[in-house]
Amino acid sequence: MNFWIRISDLDRRWIYLLMAVAIILPFFVNITIPIRISPPTQALYTYIDTLSPDSGPILISFDYDPSTQGELTPMAIALLRHAFSKNLHVITMSLYPTGIGIAENITSDIAKEYNKIEGRDYVVMPYAPGYQAVILSIGEDIKNTFATDYYGNRTDTLSCLNGVKNFEQIPIAISISGSSTPYAWITYGYTKYGEKIGVGTTAVSATSYYPYLRTKQVAGMLGGLKGAAEYETLIRKFYHTKGRSMATIGMNSQSMAHIIMIILIILGNISYFAIRKQNKRSA
Q1: Domain positions in the chain
Q2: Alpha-carbon dihedral of residues 172, 217, 101, 135, nearest 10 degrees?
Q3: Which of 62, 147, 204, 237 could tie 94 with a disulfide, CB 3.0–4.6 Å?
Q4: CA distances (Å), origin 34, targets 57, 228, 249, 255
Q5: CATH 1.10.10 fits 35-243, yes or no
Q6: What is the pTM of this model?
């Protein structure tokens, strides 16, 4: 009985410390917690995995800002690692003025991991205003949409874009966003030009895109940090990837915290009923 009383009177600071350790530990210790692959993640991975370097460049649009970077950046990194592991050419861009810097930083960092060269293996496009107009313009001629890349090089001189005019030479466009921007890619990219669209979105927004997945208007989707962790799991299984799997680490931290919370809730309830039972006997 003394044990349950001590549990009931436990100083909450010990709980805070325990939660902090549970959250921080996966960043320093390799903890393996199984991750089940969801069908939307598997669909996006499978489609990209069927592509070859001759299929044309894939397009990844970083349609988000720093407020959702923690949840969305890991999926962008996972997609880039998959593409570079397969030696696919990549076009990155952003329909957000605050997103283009994120796109350039991440693309160039992951490209260095795989010794990819800007202009030959990948190209980063500059920001252009009016996202509906940008998508429609890419559908007509991407080199007219972006006369120069992010670094000021003329796009018609880049070997990465040789033979690439519009969506017909781009096998898939993936919008990573925490807002409604993927709807524009579906409305204008898929409906008007028949472009395959992939979506990466925050967990809270993921359910909005399931109707589009069922009707095949979206080829696949990564939903939140879990979707990014699922994609990391797939590329680790089939490819030798470099760098840390931050989504997997983040999910492990969440899982550890949830396990600790469940255990504490169970112990708290047992303590309550045990003490109440003892008090009734004493009375």
Answers
A1: 2-26+255-282, 35-243
A2: 80
A3: 62
A4: 32, 14, 12, 10
A5: no
A6: 0.88
